[in-house]
Amino acid sequence: MRWNFLNNSILPIGVDLGASGVKLMQMHEEGGLLRVTAASRRPFTRPLTDDPEQRHAEIERALRAALEASPFRGDVCVVAPSTSDLLVRAVRMPAMTDEERQKAVRWEASERFTVPMEDLEVEWIRAGEVAQGHDTRDEVILVASRRGVLACCLDALLAVGLRPVAVDAPFLASARNLTRSLRRQEDQAVVQMIIDVGLSGTTVCLTRGREVAFIKPVAIGGRDLNRAVGERLSLDEDAARQLRLERLSDSEQPAGPGDRVNRAAYEAVRPLLHELGQEAALCLRYYSVTFRGARPEHVSIIGGEAREPNLASILTEHLKVEARVASPLDGIDVTAAQMRLERRSASLTEWAVAAGLAMRGASMFQVSTRRRPAAAPAKSAPAKAKRGAA
């Protein structure tokens, strides 16, 4: 049965296809207030590979299990592929119309990502005007995916009975979530920095008002932290991951000198955390110089690895701006969804993307002034999607 989610205030199911598993969330909107009505997550039983059949089977299995675990309504969904499946790059281009740019970005993306044009699905976001010598150019964020990878994700959704109406990048979904309170005209100049630390890597995002102004993937994530801990303590991959999960669950208690294992784990990951802090500082400097933008008042840390002990303090040290673990579902009623509020995920940082996807149909986001990576509902190859919805 298809559910008219707009007329009935039931919003679409947000489907976050992460590196470690799937997260699904659905909300109800009433009087401008949001309530989570269903939410579930299921891990992949093994890492996804480039083999289309294995990838499709694993995603489909996880999606079926997640759908059966919570009372989702209807079949309409908005999906975000894993950040590791996206190609993202900022480029500077001459001023041109949207129609001209749409043609130009396909060639630009093919050249930048060294992927044949016919194998790419490309969208773009205009970040703003920048001065380059005596000229003024547009800084454009290219967001691309290999058609085969995207088609595999969409096929798995169709196989479990879901109807994808839009495809978002994860950073767009989390930005939508964390900027939802910026509704006044004067809020459009507010700068926020969002650092999403996931299993496969980290994404640094800067927003101006509700719009994404800067994005950069950083190749440091939970897998790298697990590997560092394993090498330091001579643990296999599973044991190292379990140790880090225990540290995440007790992140409010930083490693102390009396806890030798905890201290050794921190010493193992500390160089990576400082490297991440340095990369984030370079991103902030680039944004401030390029757009002459105001500095953010604070930095929001989200993602499954957000509660790594000492991460917030190290980021604060490098950025000279307070960094803190965000609570992406603040102000949203989650009691009906019976979500597991484990201590490790008390702030629900790992739900930022799924929540942002579910919010895409909310009335507060029906007007858009920025291009978004958009829907591709075809089964075998993504078609050109409808643009402009946010």
Search tags:
390 residues; alpha/beta; Nucleotidyltransferase, domain 5; 2 domains; five-stranded mixed β-sheet; 9 helices; globular; disordered C terminus
Low-confidence stretches: 1-7, 341-345, 367-390
**Shape, per Cα inertia axes:** globular
CATH architecture of the largest domain: 2-Layer Sandwich
CATH C-level class of the largest domain: Alpha Beta
Q: How many structural domains in the coordinates?
A: 2
CATH topology of the largest domain: Nucleotidyltransferase, domain 5
Q: Number of helical runs?
A: 9
**Number of β-strand runs:** 13
Helix content percent band: 25-40%
For the biggest β-sheet, the strand order reads 3-2-1-4-8
CATH superfamily of the largest domain: ATPase, nucleotide binding domain
The major sheet is characterized as: 5 strands, mixed
Rounded to an integer in angstroms, the radius of gyration calculated over CA atoms is 20 Å
Structural class: alpha/beta
Mean pLDDT: 86
**Percent of residues in β-strands:** 15-25%
Oligomeric category: single chain
H/E order of the elements?
A: EEEHEEHEEHEHEEEHHHEHEH
Separation, N- and C-terminal Cα atoms: 25 Å
